[in-house]
Amino acid sequence: MARIYYDADADLSRLHGKRIAILGYGSQGHAHAQNLRDSGCDVCVGLYRGSKSWEKAQADGFPVYEVPEAVRRSDVIMMLVPDPAQPALYREAVAPHLSPGKTLMFAHGFNIRFGQIIPPPDIDVSMVAPKAPGHRMREVFREGGGVPALVAVHQDATGQALANALAYAKGLGCTRAGVIETTFTEETETDLFGEQVVLCGGVSHLIKAAFETLIEAGYQPEIAYFECLHELKLIVDLMYQGGLSYMRYSVSDTAEYGDYRSGPRVIDDHVRATMKQILEEIRSGAFAEEWIEENAKGRPWFNAKRAEERKHPIEEVGRQLRAMMPWLNPKEVPAG
Ligand SMILES: NC(=O)C1=CN([C@@H]2O[C@H](COP(=O)(O)OP(=O)(O)OC[C@H]3O[C@@H](n4cnc5c(N)ncnc54)[C@H](OP(=O)(O)O)[C@@H]3O)[C@@H](O)[C@H]2O)C=CC1
Ligand SMILES: CC[C@](O)(C(C)=O)C(=O)O
Ligand SMILES: [Mg+2]
Ligand SMILES: [Mg+2]
Protein backbone atom coordinates (compact mmCIF):
# COMPACT_ATOMS: atom_id res chain seq x y z
CA MET A 1 0.00 0.00 0.00
CA ALA A 2 1.26 3.46 -0.89
CA ARG A 3 2.03 5.74 2.04
CA ILE A 4 0.15 8.96 1.26
CA TYR A 5 0.50 12.13 3.32
CA TYR A 6 -2.17 14.83 3.63
CA ASP A 7 -2.32 18.25 5.33
CA ALA A 8 -2.71 16.78 8.82
CA ASP A 9 0.53 14.78 8.38
CA ALA A 10 2.73 17.82 7.67
CA ASP A 11 3.85 20.68 9.93
CA LEU A 12 4.49 23.91 8.05
CA SER A 13 5.99 25.55 11.15
CA ARG A 14 9.12 23.43 10.55
CA LEU A 15 9.97 25.93 7.81
CA HIS A 16 9.45 29.00 9.98
CA GLY A 17 12.70 30.75 10.74
CA LYS A 18 14.34 29.08 7.75
CA ARG A 19 15.14 30.71 4.43
CA ILE A 20 14.40 28.83 1.23
CA ALA A 21 16.41 29.47 -1.94
CA ILE A 22 14.61 28.62 -5.15
CA LEU A 23 17.26 28.15 -7.84
CA GLY A 24 15.65 29.00 -11.19
CA TYR A 25 12.45 30.92 -11.83
CA GLY A 26 10.90 29.00 -14.72
CA SER A 27 7.89 26.70 -14.80
CA GLN A 28 8.45 25.06 -11.42
CA GLY A 29 10.55 27.86 -9.87
CA HIS A 30 7.94 30.60 -10.05
CA ALA A 31 5.24 28.27 -8.71
CA HIS A 32 7.33 26.99 -5.77
CA ALA A 33 8.47 30.50 -4.85
CA GLN A 34 4.97 32.00 -4.98
CA ASN A 35 3.11 29.12 -3.30
CA LEU A 36 5.67 28.93 -0.48
CA ARG A 37 5.52 32.69 0.07
CA ASP A 38 1.72 32.57 0.18
CA SER A 39 2.12 29.81 2.81
CA GLY A 40 4.16 32.18 4.99
CA CYS A 41 7.69 31.03 4.07
CA ASP A 42 10.77 33.21 3.65
CA VAL A 43 11.83 32.74 0.02
CA CYS A 44 14.64 34.11 -2.14
CA VAL A 45 15.43 33.30 -5.77
CA GLY A 46 18.83 32.28 -7.15
CA LEU A 47 19.66 33.00 -10.81
CA TYR A 48 22.59 33.91 -13.05
CA ARG A 49 23.34 37.49 -14.10
CA GLY A 50 21.61 38.14 -17.44
CA SER A 51 18.83 35.63 -16.82
CA LYS A 52 15.58 36.61 -18.53
CA SER A 53 13.81 35.58 -15.30
CA TRP A 54 15.74 37.96 -13.03
CA GLU A 55 13.50 41.01 -13.55
CA LYS A 56 10.38 38.87 -13.46
CA ALA A 57 11.26 37.40 -10.06
CA GLN A 58 12.10 40.87 -8.76
CA ALA A 59 8.86 42.29 -10.16
CA ASP A 60 7.04 39.47 -8.36
CA GLY A 61 8.57 40.80 -5.14
CA PHE A 62 11.37 38.31 -4.41
CA PRO A 63 14.91 39.11 -3.38
CA VAL A 64 17.06 37.76 -6.23
CA TYR A 65 20.73 36.81 -5.88
CA GLU A 66 23.30 35.01 -7.95
CA VAL A 67 23.23 31.33 -7.05
CA PRO A 68 26.25 31.22 -4.68
CA GLU A 69 24.83 34.11 -2.63
CA ALA A 70 21.35 32.56 -2.53
CA VAL A 71 22.83 29.26 -1.31
CA ARG A 72 24.96 31.00 1.34
CA ARG A 73 21.93 32.89 2.69
CA SER A 74 19.59 29.89 2.83
CA ASP A 75 18.87 26.77 4.87
CA VAL A 76 16.88 24.94 2.21
CA ILE A 77 18.03 24.96 -1.43
CA MET A 78 15.56 23.77 -4.07
CA MET A 79 17.18 22.97 -7.43
CA LEU A 80 14.79 24.16 -10.14
CA VAL A 81 17.05 24.80 -13.10
CA PRO A 82 16.78 22.45 -16.12
CA ASP A 83 18.01 18.90 -15.39
CA PRO A 84 20.97 19.04 -17.83
CA ALA A 85 22.18 22.35 -16.31
CA GLN A 86 22.10 21.08 -12.72
CA PRO A 87 25.41 19.16 -12.47
CA ALA A 88 27.61 22.09 -13.52
CA LEU A 89 25.62 24.56 -11.43
CA TYR A 90 25.86 22.21 -8.45
CA ARG A 91 29.64 21.79 -8.83
CA GLU A 92 30.44 25.45 -9.43
CA ALA A 93 27.86 27.45 -7.47
CA VAL A 94 26.07 25.22 -4.96
CA ALA A 95 28.45 22.65 -3.47
CA PRO A 96 31.10 25.18 -2.33
CA HIS A 97 28.44 26.97 -0.24
CA LEU A 98 26.72 24.00 1.38
CA SER A 99 27.38 23.43 5.06
CA PRO A 100 26.26 20.72 7.50
CA GLY A 101 22.59 20.98 8.40
CA LYS A 102 21.49 22.52 5.09
CA THR A 103 18.97 20.75 2.91
CA LEU A 104 19.33 20.25 -0.83
CA MET A 105 16.05 19.53 -2.59
CA PHE A 106 14.96 18.43 -6.06
CA ALA A 107 11.65 18.33 -7.94
CA HIS A 108 12.86 15.44 -10.11
CA GLY A 109 15.41 12.75 -9.30
CA PHE A 110 17.31 12.60 -12.62
CA ASN A 111 20.72 13.81 -11.46
CA ILE A 112 20.76 11.79 -8.26
CA ARG A 113 19.41 8.63 -9.93
CA PHE A 114 21.94 8.81 -12.75
CA GLY A 115 24.90 9.81 -10.56
CA GLN A 116 25.43 13.31 -12.01
CA ILE A 117 25.24 14.98 -8.57
CA ILE A 118 26.79 13.36 -5.51
CA PRO A 119 26.17 15.54 -2.43
CA PRO A 120 28.33 15.42 0.72
CA PRO A 121 26.99 13.09 3.44
CA ASP A 122 26.47 15.80 6.09
CA ILE A 123 23.47 17.47 4.39
CA ASP A 124 19.88 16.34 3.94
CA VAL A 125 18.91 15.53 0.36
CA SER A 126 15.21 15.20 -0.38
CA MET A 127 12.67 15.61 -3.14
CA VAL A 128 9.19 17.00 -3.57
CA ALA A 129 8.19 16.21 -7.15
CA PRO A 130 4.87 17.77 -8.12
CA LYS A 131 2.89 15.70 -10.58
CA ALA A 132 1.93 18.78 -12.58
CA PRO A 133 3.33 21.47 -14.85
CA GLY A 134 4.43 24.48 -12.81
CA HIS A 135 1.97 26.93 -14.33
CA ARG A 136 -1.00 24.68 -13.50
CA MET A 137 0.39 24.05 -10.02
CA ARG A 138 0.31 27.78 -9.30
CA GLU A 139 -3.19 28.20 -10.76
CA VAL A 140 -4.64 25.25 -8.83
CA PHE A 141 -3.09 26.57 -5.58
CA ARG A 142 -4.63 30.01 -6.16
CA GLU A 143 -8.01 28.36 -6.66
CA GLY A 144 -7.64 26.82 -3.19
CA GLY A 145 -6.58 23.35 -4.33
CA GLY A 146 -3.30 21.57 -4.79
CA VAL A 147 -1.59 19.14 -7.14
CA PRO A 148 -0.34 15.71 -6.02
CA ALA A 149 3.37 15.17 -5.45
CA LEU A 150 5.91 12.49 -4.63
CA VAL A 151 8.26 12.81 -1.64
CA ALA A 152 11.58 11.00 -1.22
CA VAL A 153 14.66 11.18 0.99
CA HIS A 154 18.08 10.38 -0.47
CA GLN A 155 20.13 11.41 2.59
CA ASP A 156 18.90 12.02 6.13
CA ALA A 157 21.78 13.67 7.98
CA THR A 158 19.53 15.44 10.51
CA GLY A 159 16.97 12.70 11.05
CA GLN A 160 14.34 15.31 10.05
CA ALA A 161 14.56 15.09 6.27
CA LEU A 162 11.17 13.48 5.65
CA ALA A 163 9.26 15.72 8.07
CA ASN A 164 10.94 18.81 6.58
CA ALA A 165 10.21 17.71 3.01
CA LEU A 166 6.57 17.18 3.95
CA ALA A 167 6.45 20.70 5.39
CA TYR A 168 7.77 21.97 2.05
CA ALA A 169 5.15 19.92 0.20
CA LYS A 170 2.47 21.48 2.41
CA GLY A 171 3.80 24.96 1.56
CA LEU A 172 3.31 24.11 -2.12
CA GLY A 173 -0.27 22.99 -1.46
CA CYS A 174 0.53 19.39 -2.44
CA THR A 175 -0.62 17.80 0.83
CA ARG A 176 -4.12 19.07 -0.03
CA ALA A 177 -4.12 16.51 -2.88
CA GLY A 178 -1.87 13.76 -1.51
CA VAL A 179 1.90 13.26 -1.34
CA ILE A 180 3.12 9.71 -1.97
CA GLU A 181 6.32 8.45 -0.35
CA THR A 182 8.77 6.99 -2.85
CA THR A 183 12.47 6.78 -3.76
CA PHE A 184 14.51 8.92 -6.15
CA THR A 185 14.74 5.87 -8.42
CA GLU A 186 11.00 5.20 -8.57
CA GLU A 187 10.17 8.87 -9.12
CA THR A 188 12.76 9.30 -11.87
CA GLU A 189 11.86 6.18 -13.82
CA THR A 190 8.07 6.61 -13.61
CA ASP A 191 8.26 10.34 -14.39
CA LEU A 192 10.41 9.83 -17.49
CA PHE A 193 8.20 6.95 -18.61
CA GLY A 194 4.96 8.89 -18.10
CA GLU A 195 6.12 12.01 -19.94
CA GLN A 196 7.56 10.06 -22.90
CA VAL A 197 4.84 7.47 -23.36
CA VAL A 198 1.63 9.23 -22.30
CA LEU A 199 1.65 12.82 -21.09
CA CYS A 200 3.91 14.50 -23.64
CA GLY A 201 5.22 12.07 -26.28
CA GLY A 202 2.28 9.68 -26.48
CA VAL A 203 -0.53 12.22 -26.48
CA SER A 204 1.10 14.76 -28.81
CA HIS A 205 1.95 12.12 -31.41
CA LEU A 206 -1.49 10.51 -31.15
CA ILE A 207 -3.05 13.94 -31.77
CA LYS A 208 -0.76 14.69 -34.73
CA ALA A 209 -1.24 11.28 -36.34
CA ALA A 210 -5.05 11.55 -36.12
CA PHE A 211 -5.00 15.18 -37.36
CA GLU A 212 -2.77 14.26 -40.33
CA THR A 213 -4.97 11.25 -41.16
CA LEU A 214 -8.06 13.46 -41.42
CA ILE A 215 -6.26 16.17 -43.46
CA GLU A 216 -4.83 13.60 -45.89
CA ALA A 217 -8.36 12.24 -46.37
CA GLY A 218 -9.53 15.74 -47.36
CA TYR A 219 -11.32 16.91 -44.23
CA GLN A 220 -11.16 20.55 -43.06
CA PRO A 221 -8.19 21.31 -40.77
CA GLU A 222 -10.42 23.32 -38.41
CA ILE A 223 -12.66 20.30 -37.85
CA ALA A 224 -9.60 18.05 -37.42
CA TYR A 225 -8.24 20.48 -34.79
CA PHE A 226 -11.47 20.60 -32.79
CA GLU A 227 -11.91 16.83 -32.99
CA CYS A 228 -8.36 15.68 -32.22
CA LEU A 229 -6.95 18.39 -29.93
CA HIS A 230 -9.47 20.85 -28.52
CA GLU A 231 -12.05 18.27 -27.45
CA LEU A 232 -9.36 16.11 -25.86
CA LYS A 233 -9.18 18.56 -22.95
CA LEU A 234 -12.93 18.31 -22.42
CA ILE A 235 -12.74 14.51 -22.47
CA VAL A 236 -9.73 14.45 -20.11
CA ASP A 237 -11.61 16.76 -17.72
CA LEU A 238 -14.22 14.00 -17.33
CA MET A 239 -11.50 11.38 -16.63
CA TYR A 240 -9.88 13.78 -14.12
CA GLN A 241 -13.17 14.08 -12.24
CA GLY A 242 -14.48 10.52 -12.47
CA GLY A 243 -12.01 8.21 -14.19
CA LEU A 244 -12.47 6.40 -17.49
CA SER A 245 -15.94 5.18 -16.43
CA TYR A 246 -17.28 8.71 -15.95
CA MET A 247 -15.93 9.74 -19.37
CA ARG A 248 -17.65 6.68 -20.89
CA TYR A 249 -20.85 7.53 -19.00
CA SER A 250 -20.88 11.03 -20.46
CA VAL A 251 -20.10 10.16 -24.09
CA SER A 252 -22.64 8.45 -26.37
CA ASP A 253 -22.99 4.67 -26.42
CA THR A 254 -21.79 4.85 -30.02
CA ALA A 255 -18.56 6.49 -28.85
CA GLU A 256 -18.19 4.00 -26.00
CA TYR A 257 -18.64 1.07 -28.42
CA GLY A 258 -16.02 2.61 -30.75
CA ASP A 259 -13.69 3.04 -27.76
CA TYR A 260 -13.78 -0.71 -26.93
CA ARG A 261 -13.70 -1.78 -30.59
CA SER A 262 -11.00 0.48 -32.03
CA GLY A 263 -8.91 1.64 -29.05
CA PRO A 264 -7.07 -1.69 -28.68
CA ARG A 265 -6.29 -1.67 -32.42
CA VAL A 266 -4.56 1.70 -32.08
CA ILE A 267 -2.81 0.84 -28.80
CA ASP A 268 -1.93 -2.69 -29.90
CA ASP A 269 0.72 -5.24 -28.88
CA HIS A 270 3.32 -3.42 -30.93
CA VAL A 271 2.69 -0.23 -28.93
CA ARG A 272 2.87 -2.15 -25.65
CA ALA A 273 6.18 -3.74 -26.72
CA THR A 274 7.54 -0.30 -27.58
CA MET A 275 6.45 0.99 -24.15
CA LYS A 276 8.42 -1.83 -22.51
CA GLN A 277 11.44 -1.02 -24.62
CA ILE A 278 11.27 2.67 -23.69
CA LEU A 279 10.98 1.76 -20.00
CA GLU A 280 14.06 -0.43 -20.34
CA GLU A 281 16.03 2.41 -21.98
CA ILE A 282 15.10 4.62 -19.02
CA ARG A 283 15.99 2.03 -16.37
CA SER A 284 19.30 1.06 -18.00
CA GLY A 285 20.43 4.70 -18.14
CA ALA A 286 20.58 4.65 -21.97
CA PHE A 287 18.06 7.50 -22.27
CA ALA A 288 19.90 9.57 -19.63
CA GLU A 289 23.23 9.02 -21.36
CA GLU A 290 21.77 10.08 -24.72
CA TRP A 291 20.16 13.24 -23.26
CA ILE A 292 23.34 14.23 -21.40
CA GLU A 293 25.35 13.80 -24.62
CA GLU A 294 22.82 15.79 -26.68
CA ASN A 295 23.23 18.66 -24.19
CA ALA A 296 27.02 18.40 -24.28
CA LYS A 297 26.84 18.85 -28.08
CA GLY A 298 24.67 21.99 -27.73
CA ARG A 299 21.30 20.30 -28.38
CA PRO A 300 21.45 20.22 -32.24
CA TRP A 301 18.78 17.50 -32.68
CA PHE A 302 16.54 18.87 -29.92
CA ASN A 303 16.61 22.45 -31.24
CA ALA A 304 15.93 21.39 -34.84
CA LYS A 305 13.02 19.20 -33.74
CA ARG A 306 11.56 21.96 -31.55
CA ALA A 307 11.64 24.41 -34.50
CA GLU A 308 10.09 21.85 -36.86
CA GLU A 309 7.29 20.92 -34.44
CA ARG A 310 6.35 24.56 -33.85
CA LYS A 311 5.65 24.88 -37.59
CA HIS A 312 3.25 21.92 -37.77
CA PRO A 313 -0.08 22.88 -39.45
CA ILE A 314 -2.03 21.94 -36.30
CA GLU A 315 -0.24 24.79 -34.52
CA GLU A 316 -1.27 27.40 -37.12
CA VAL A 317 -4.90 26.37 -37.34
CA GLY A 318 -5.05 26.08 -33.55
CA ARG A 319 -3.70 29.61 -33.07
CA GLN A 320 -6.42 31.04 -35.34
CA LEU A 321 -9.22 29.11 -33.65
CA ARG A 322 -8.07 29.88 -30.11
CA ALA A 323 -7.96 33.60 -30.97
CA MET A 324 -11.76 33.41 -31.38
CA MET A 325 -12.13 31.92 -27.87
CA PRO A 326 -10.70 34.55 -25.51
CA TRP A 327 -12.21 32.79 -22.48
CA LEU A 328 -9.60 30.05 -23.00
CA ASN A 329 -6.93 32.60 -22.16
CA PRO A 330 -4.93 31.61 -25.29
CA LYS A 331 -1.17 31.47 -24.73
CA GLU A 332 1.84 31.90 -26.99
CA VAL A 333 5.27 30.41 -26.32
CA PRO A 334 7.42 33.40 -25.23
CA ALA A 335 10.08 34.41 -27.77
CA GLY A 336 13.72 33.57 -27.02
N1 LIG B 1 8.27 21.91 -15.86
C1 LIG B 1 7.59 21.29 -14.91
O1 LIG B 1 6.42 21.56 -14.67
C2 LIG B 1 8.25 20.25 -14.06
C3 LIG B 1 9.60 20.23 -13.88
N2 LIG B 1 10.15 19.42 -12.93
C4 LIG B 1 11.57 19.52 -12.66
O2 LIG B 1 11.83 20.83 -12.15
C5 LIG B 1 13.14 21.23 -12.51
C6 LIG B 1 13.08 22.59 -13.23
O3 LIG B 1 12.44 22.40 -14.47
P1 LIG B 1 11.57 23.57 -15.17
O4 LIG B 1 10.81 24.34 -14.16
O5 LIG B 1 10.84 22.90 -16.28
O6 LIG B 1 12.72 24.49 -15.78
P2 LIG B 1 12.53 25.79 -16.71
O7 LIG B 1 13.32 25.56 -17.95
O8 LIG B 1 11.11 26.15 -16.86
O9 LIG B 1 13.22 26.95 -15.84
C7 LIG B 1 14.57 26.94 -15.54
C8 LIG B 1 14.97 28.19 -14.78
O10 LIG B 1 16.34 28.02 -14.39
C9 LIG B 1 17.08 29.14 -14.84
N3 LIG B 1 18.44 28.70 -15.13
C10 LIG B 1 18.89 27.99 -16.19
N4 LIG B 1 20.20 27.75 -16.06
C11 LIG B 1 20.59 28.34 -14.90
C12 LIG B 1 21.84 28.47 -14.24
N5 LIG B 1 22.95 27.94 -14.72
N6 LIG B 1 21.86 29.16 -13.07
C13 LIG B 1 20.74 29.69 -12.55
N7 LIG B 1 19.53 29.61 -13.14
C14 LIG B 1 19.47 28.94 -14.30
C15 LIG B 1 16.33 29.64 -16.07
O11 LIG B 1 16.68 30.97 -16.34
P3 LIG B 1 16.23 31.72 -17.72
O12 LIG B 1 14.82 32.13 -17.47
O13 LIG B 1 17.16 32.87 -17.86
O14 LIG B 1 16.34 30.71 -18.82
C16 LIG B 1 14.89 29.46 -15.59
O15 LIG B 1 14.52 30.52 -14.75
C17 LIG B 1 13.71 20.08 -13.32
O16 LIG B 1 14.39 19.23 -12.45
C18 LIG B 1 12.47 19.38 -13.88
O17 LIG B 1 12.64 18.01 -14.20
C19 LIG B 1 9.39 18.58 -12.14
C20 LIG B 1 8.04 18.53 -12.31
C21 LIG B 1 7.37 19.29 -13.34
C1 LIG C 1 4.86 15.66 -17.74
C2 LIG C 1 6.14 16.42 -17.81
C3 LIG C 1 6.82 16.62 -16.48
O1 LIG C 1 7.27 15.39 -15.96
C4 LIG C 1 5.81 17.21 -15.53
C5 LIG C 1 5.15 18.51 -15.83
O2 LIG C 1 5.44 16.56 -14.58
C6 LIG C 1 8.04 17.53 -16.71
O3 LIG C 1 9.18 17.03 -16.63
O4 LIG C 1 7.86 18.72 -17.02
MG1 LIG D 1 6.42 14.87 -14.17
MG1 LIG E 1 9.41 15.16 -15.83
TrEMBL record:
What pathway, per the record? Answer: Amino-acid biosynthesis; L-isoleucine biosynthesis; L-isoleucine from 2-oxobutanoate: step 2/4; Amino-acid biosynthesis; L-valine biosynthesis; L-valine from pyruvate: step 2/4
Enzyme nomenclature, EC number: 1.1.1.86
The UniProt entry's GO CC annotations, sorted and at most eight, read:
cytosol
Residues covered by the KARI C-terminal knotted domain:
183-328
Name the chain's protein: Ketol-acid reductoisomerase (NADP(+))
Q: Name one Pfam family in it.
A: KARI_N
Q: What is the lineage of its organism?
A: Bacteria, Bacillati, Chloroflexota, Thermoflexia, Thermoflexales
Q: Which InterPro entries match?
A: 6-PGluconate_DH-like_C_sf, KARI, KARI_C, KARI_N, KARI_prok, NAD(P)-bd_dom_sf
In terms of PANTHER family, this protein maps to: KETOL-ACID REDUCTOISOMERASE, MITOCHONDRIAL (PTHR21371)
Question: Which residues does Mg(2+) 2 bind?
Answer: 191, 227, 231
Q: Which residues form the active site?
A: 108
Span of domain KARI N-terminal Rossmann? 2-182
Q: What residues does substrate bind to?
A: 252
Q: Which GO terms describe its biological process?
A: isoleucine biosynthetic process; L-valine biosynthetic process
Family per similarity comment: Belongs to the ketol-acid reductoisomerase family.
The enzyme's first-digit EC class, named in words, is oxidoreductase
Record text on cofactor binding: Binds 2 magnesium ions per subunit.
Give the cofactors, semicolon-separated.
Mg(2+)
Which residues bind NADP(+) per the record?
25-28, 51, 53, 134
Function as written in the Swiss-Prot or TrEMBL entry: Involved in the biosynthesis of branched-chain amino acids (BCAA). Catalyzes an alkyl-migration followed by a ketol-acid reduction of (S)-2-acetolactate (S2AL) to yield (R)-2,3-dihydroxy-isovalerate. In the isomerase reaction, S2AL is rearranged via a Mg-dependent methyl migration to produce 3-hydroxy-3-methyl-2-ketobutyrate (HMKB). In the reductase reaction, this 2-ketoacid undergoes a metal-dependent reduction by NADPH to yield (R)-2,3-dihydroxy-isovalerate.
What the entry lists under PROSITE patterns is as follows: KARI_C (PS51851), KARI_N (PS51850)
Keywords, A to Z, come to: Amino-acid biosynthesis, Branched-chain amino acid biosynthesis, Isomerase, Magnesium, Metal-binding, NADP, Oxidoreductase
Keyword Isomerase in record: yes
SUPFAM superfamilies in UniProt: 6-phosphogluconate dehydrogenase C-terminal domain-like, NAD(P)-binding Rossmann-fold domains
Could you cite one Gene Ontology molecular function of this protein? magnesium ion binding
User: Which chemical reaction does it catalyze?
Assistant: (2R)-2,3-dihydroxy-3-methylbutanoate + NADP(+) = (2S)-2-acetolactate + NADPH + H(+); (2R,3R)-2,3-dihydroxy-3-methylpentanoate + NADP(+) = (S)-2-ethyl-2-hydroxy-3-oxobutanoate + NADPH + H(+)
